[in-house]
What does this fold into?
Amino acid sequence: MRREPKRYEDLEAAIDGVVESYGHGREIDNLESAALPNKRAVIEAFHCLEHVLFMGFYATRALNETNLRHGVAEHMYRAHSILVEQIERALTYDHWMGRTDRILPAGSGEEVVLKLFQAIPELRRKLNLDVVSAYDGDPAAHNIEEIVFSYPSITAVTAYRVAHELCQAGVPMIPRIITEHAHSKTGIDIHPSARIGESFFVDHGTGVVVGETSVIGDHVKLYQGVTLGALSVPHREGEVKKRHPTLEDRVTIYSGATILGGDTVIGEGSVVGGNVWLTKSVPPGSKIFGRPKNDSVAPPKK
It folds into this structure.
């Protein structure tokens, strides 16, 4: 009998060691992968919805009133087929793991997906405002097409707005898969549970973090490196407290600023300068530069 080279014996031993490491009952030792949502499938469904949301920018053939419906339907049927299965997997797995006591009626995934699809006209209205806000807020933008094709803000906000609808419907895991996919592409980390108003723009974007319980009003602009974060609190399963700040309408936050805490409110029309660290609320119309000491907060004009 031919003896295998020693390198294969060593490889087999290494494989045995990895297999044995799955027998310790640790949190990452879960082997129920067949029951979990499929990440690649979820991302494929999201890309189908990107086509639907911006059909004229993603289509590979000329579109007109005659063939538009066919093109939209092609992508929506594909997204529907994928999402119904993946959402039902996520809901069933969550129930099986004891994370929810909801009894799941038949067709839960179908109901959620249809509700998402019915929201698409409203999502398109909001995304149009986001695109226009990017164009109006960036002198370097040459045209709307450039923004849709290349601005990381639009990629991240599109993912957020789709994922937020699923979050509102109580779908576990899948919303975070969608926003983290956009995070990996853009460097913009928006939690799908955050509440973001209309005409939202993230300029440049790299390193922006918008936490789970953040509330952002209309016409808000963030620059790169901004963190809307939480003060350090222990994690408690199933508990969602207001840990992240609130930005009222027409607030601008410049690069590198960090704003922390669920009780922190940045008043309407305020401007927060670069690299500012804030853990307390400021009134509407404030101008905050440097470190937020008494002399760095300019009171609103009367």
